Amino acid sequence: MCDSTLAIYCFIDDFLKASGHREDIRVEVSDAAVMSIALTAMLHFGGNFERSRLILTELGLIKRLLSGWRFSRRVNRLADLISQLFHQLGSVLKELHWESRYLLDSFPVAVGDNLRLKRCRLVQDELYRGRMPSKRRFLYGVRVQLMATSDGIRLEFCLLPGGCADLQGLAELALDLPEAAELFVDAGYNFYEWEDYLREIEHLNLQVPRKANSRRGREPWLEIYKSVMRKYIERDDWRDC
Q1: Cβ 207 vs Cβ 227: under 8 Å
Q2: What's the confidence (pLDDT) of residue 234?
Q3: pLDDT tens digits, residue range 73-89?
Q4: What total number of domains does the chain contain?
């Protein structure tokens, strides 16, 4: 864990210097250290910022222990910079990925149950109320659209209200992929106009599972190929981002 944390800190520090980022001269803990604590929490502590902050300080990787509320304020202030870092790194990984096969899927993140919706302060709009057909229940929260390589390396993401369809997430993503790349999705992205647009304008092959009564037909060998690639998305660690 120490080696990966040091590598994360060095990468973030170089990124901030290259992007010309300036921080207040009065801070005792640099922005690179704050971002490193947040990313280490995601990688090793299941997103628990408090545990990551305490353990990294005890190991001597962070010079000064920030209080919980001050750390939360610093992370919220650096949210746009963290997102920029993620997308910048994703662009580099796209160029290094030689297979040109990518995976796209969505998963829900609930912010509360129906019994507590009146007391929920994170989101207060009916647009965030959606439905999860696979679990036969309603969702009140957000839906995460996540794109990754065939090896499971995350490249792009976007957050949408829970009531939005998967196709809207496809429109929100940049999809800056190599020419003639293959993007494997589930049946929720089945829309012929979008498929034609991506193939003709973006030169991107959208691999959508076909139904038996599809107007465009379905070839058995191609459906098996799509099913095999879809298994990489259906793994349990797909959501561990």
Answers
A1: no
A2: 66
A3: 888 888 888 888 888 78
A4: 2
Task: Quote the distance between the C-alpha of residue 58 and its chain's center.
Answer: 30
Distance CA 72, CA 94 (A): 31
- pTM of the model as a whole: 0.72
Last residue of one domain, picked from the residues 87, 122, 140: 87
Is residue 182 a contact partner of residue 150, using CB atoms and an 8 Å limit? Answer: no
- The residues near 224 (Cβ < 8 Å, ≥ 6 apart) are none
Between CA 241 and CA 231 the distance in angstroms is 17
Q: Say whether both 61 and 122 belong to one domain.
A: no
**Residue matched to tokens 């929720």:** 188
Q: Which domain holds residue 176?
A: 97-239
Taking only the tens place, the pLDDT of each residue in 169-199 is 888 888 888 888 888 888 778 888 888 888 8
d(CA 133, CA 98): 35
pLDDT tens readout for residues 121-165? 777 777 887 777 767 777 788 888 888 888 778 888 888 888 888
Taking the C-alpha atoms of residue 107 and residue 130, their distance in angstroms, rounded to an integer, is 12
- Distance separating alpha carbons of residues 102 and 107, to the nearest angstrom: 17
Domain identity same for 27 and 129: no
CA distance 76 to 85: 15
59 and 123 co-located in one domain: no
Q: What's the chain's Rg over C-alpha atoms?
A: 21
